[in-house]
Amino acid sequence: MTSLISDEQILLFSGSMMEVCGSSKVTLREFGCEQSLLSRPDGSASFIQGETSVLAAAYGPAEVKVSKEIYDRATLEVLIQPKVGLPSVRERSREQYVRETCEASLLLSLHPRSSLTLILQVLHDDGSLLSCFLNAACMALMDAGLPMSCLFCGVTCAIDTDGQIITDPTAAQEKESRALMTFAIDSKERRVMMSSTKGSFSVPELQQCIAVSQKASEKIFQFYRDSVRRRYSKNL
Amino acid sequence: NTTVICGIKAELANPTVEAPGKGYIVPNVDLPPLCSSRFRPGPPGEQAQAASQFIADVIESSEVIQAEDLCIERGKLCWVLYCDLMCLDYDGNVLDACVIALLAALKNTQLPEVTVNTETCTPVVNLEKRHGLNIHKHPVGASFCVFDDSILLVDPTAEEESLLTSQLTVVTDEAARLCAVHKPGGTSLSGEKLQECISRATVRQKEIQKLIDKVIHSVKTSQ
Predict the structure, then answer these.
(1) What is the pLDDT of residues A162-171, one digit of tens each?
(2) CATH code for A31-235?
(3) Are B121 and B91 in contact (CB under 8 A)?
(4) Which residue segment(s) compose the domain that B75 sits in?
(5) Which residue spans traverse the membrane (chain B) (predicted)?
(6) What digits encode the pLDDT tens for the residues B133-176?
(7) Where do the structural domains in chain A lie, given as residue ranges?
(8) Sign of the CA dihedral B203, A94, B98, B164?
(9) Mean pLDDT, chain A, as a whole number?
(10) What is the CATH number of the domain that holds B27?
(11) How many CB pairs lie under 8 A apart between chains A and B?
């Protein structure tokens, strides 16, 4: 049996300060990724953002249950496993967010009447969990080699009580914040694929957060590119 | 044709240790097989659970009711409001209907006065004396669906929902502050389109609030 970490690839990106929109700064916590770390799934990845860490595994295309079969495209199932206990309503709603984002970027019509399963296991939650799910999901789908029309990444923004925008907040910063938003940004046109918000905020604040997330997404996409390039240059 | 009925049940309970000065609100959205052939009997499906979570998030972020108002005695007694939303006829856009039904039901809720007997430490309920809930905000949702990245449709029906490529729900309150911008994936949307949706949502909020006020008023006068 091959070692589990034979083609392991760890890349760390240290968040440096970058100027956007005049005064607000985009800072992401240190993030890293490891692909193909599990041997059984068709694709796997773990994504780490600061202390938050998620493990993702993708299976498919495989046979589908007759009740879930869709005649013109593949059925995508997303399962989120919390660190302790059974998945609750909160996980269900996050599953919906991740699934619909993946459905939009995957070319599901290339695999009709088959099933794709994506499992996301929380390893540690220290804020920005939904964006970490999205990043891990995208990396796992890439690792599985599934055809996609574009890549996507997740960015979480928090607005604190002074109206400052914090990107990639920790759990403590999330708790203190007035509003919390998570966006999924596509790699093609940097547009908003998914949005999930908490707390109340004004329209200009929303627009500003989207702009900041789009800036931050460029860093993440660059990281995706670097990590894949490094991985394949090593293997070939 | 979408019909949602909302019932509010109030119960007395002990507040949680983490938030001794707060009561709580538990929303539950039910999409029974009765309302559409797409739902099967059994435990709630993903759509119903996601809708429940969405309603809970709207209540929390819009602060429609301050959780502190539901507290009767700090650390000892508080109200729990169970908001059961039952869909009777599913014809698309169930989230908007749920938010409106919830708001109308909350405005109509009368809680009896409760005092705590200091000697026996038991709650005494005075059913004669009732008062309405203190509604701080009036959140109203507006749903849009997107076809082929370009065509926007307001208030989609079930048929339109089955064909769309992306869905968006914007919840605003009377001060035009956004409480939720819920877009569970789908094709991406440009900034201008989003702005258009938000301005339409604010117009709709005013219309719906007027409608609810009118209905509540007519209910009061007929009593």
Answers:
(1) 888 999 999 9
(2) 3.30.230.70
(3) no
(4) 3-222
(5) none
(6) 888 888 898 999 888 777 888 888 988 888 888 888 999 988 88
(7) 31-235
(8) positive
(9) 86
(10) 3.30.230.70
(11) 102
